[in-house]
Amino acid sequence: MRQHFSSKWNVSVQARKQRKYMRTAPKHVRQRLMHTNLSQELRDKYDRRSFPVRAGDKVKVMRGTFKGRISKVTGLNLKSLSVYVEDVKRKKEDGKEIQIPIKPSNLQIISLEMGDKKRIKISDRKKPAKK
User: Fold this and answer.
1) Does 130 score more than 70 pLDDT?
2) Long-range contacts of 33-37 (CB under 8 A, 24+ apart)
3) CA torsion, points 98, 103, 109, 114, in degrees to nearest 10?
4) Domain segments of the chain: what residues?
5) Second-level CATH architecture of 15-124
6) Can you give the pLDDT at residue 118?
7) How far is C-alpha 1 from the chain's CA centre?
């Protein structure tokens, strides 16, 4: 039986439904899942809590065995919802070095790559002030 993405689904506490939502999500929803929180200086500057990760951003690893490493993002994988960071590598048995995928929730953006017009437009938008 094929499982389809449901836009009607909102929130569930059941982990299996959360996993199904992420596994069956279309690309435009997956792009929203690739947001990462910003450092305190960037939060103050852009008036936002999170930003979409892009190649070229400088990030800090917050969780896992590579915790504390600061490096550039080399690539993204929307299918597996993972980010590849420059200095997060391990050696295989045959001696090759491979990059380890990291979930975007385990990263923090330290500096943004602002070479894209869309990104500049996103950063210029401000959220309305809460009353």
Assistant:
1) no
2) 33/81, 33/104, 34/76, 34/78, 34/81, 34/83, 34/104, 35/104, 36/83, 36/104, 36/105, 36/107, 36/108, 36/109, 37/108, 37/109
3) 80
4) 15-124
5) Roll (2.30)
6) 85
7) 31
With beta carbons less than 8 A apart as the criterion, state whether 46 and 37 touch: no
In single-letter form, the type of residue at position 27 comes to: K
What distance in Å separates the CA atoms of residue 43 and residue 49, rounded to the nearest whole number?
6
Question: Cα(115)–Cα(85) distance, rounded to whole angstroms?
Answer: 19
Q: Higher-confidence residue: 2 or 65?
A: 65
CA 106 to chain centre: 8
Separation CA 54–CA 122 (nearest Å): 13
Give the count of beta carbons closer than 10 Å to the beta carbon of residue 62. 16
